[in-house]
């Protein structure tokens, strides 16, 4: 299955709204991190500039849009996002972009391993 499609499917299950531009940035960030072959990627020094260049915007705009998309998904607080983050209730659903991206990358890796077996 196409990696982009699988990541989009998982991110939507987490409660992300595809109408937010941050949704696209989160998708691209997760795919980018998955294709870095396990290398540690700096969020502010590598990921944001990469996305900003790809989408012809600024790193600050990428960071802000991702933060808003993550915040929206956390406010919805469905069971999938609770499982991903380990939060017991909606009041604990608040994460930095870095925390959320790394948790999502690990979640996607697990889901891909499950679907490949």
Question: Explain this structure to me?
Answer:
By secondary structure, the chain is mostly helical. The protein has a single domain, classed as Arc Repressor Mutant, subunit A (Orthogonal Bundle). It has 6 helices and no strands. It has helices at residues 3-13, 21-34, 43-54, 59-76, 79-85, 97-116. α2 packs across α6. The longest helix is centred in the C-terminal third of the chain and has 20 residues, at 97-116. The model has no long low-confidence stretch (mean pLDDT 82).
List the defining traits of the structure above.
117 residues; mainly alpha; Arc Repressor Mutant, subunit A; 6 helices; 70% helix
Low-confidence stretches: none
User: What's the CATH superfamily, by name?
Assistant: Winged helix-like DNA-binding domain superfamily/Winged helix DNA-binding domain
Order of SSEs, N→C?
HHHHHH
Q: Give the overall pLDDT as a whole number.
A: 82
CATH top level label: Mainly Alpha
**Residue share in helix:** over 70%
């Amino acid at each position: 299955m196409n990696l982009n499609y699988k990541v989009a499917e998982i991110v939507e299950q987490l409660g992300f709204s595809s109408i937010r531009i941050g949704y696209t940035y989160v998708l691209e960030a997760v795919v980018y991190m998955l294709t870095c072959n396990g290398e540690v990627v700096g969020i502010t020094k590598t990921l944001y500039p990469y996305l900003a260049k790809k989408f012809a915007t600024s790193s600050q705009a990428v960071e802000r849009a991702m933060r808003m998309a993550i915040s929206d998904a956390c406010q919805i607080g469905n069971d999938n996002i609770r499982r991903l983050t380990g939060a017991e209730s909606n009041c604990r659903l608040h994460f930095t972009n870095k925390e959320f991206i790394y948790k999502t990358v690990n979640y996607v890796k697990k889901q891909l391993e499950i679907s490949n077996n």
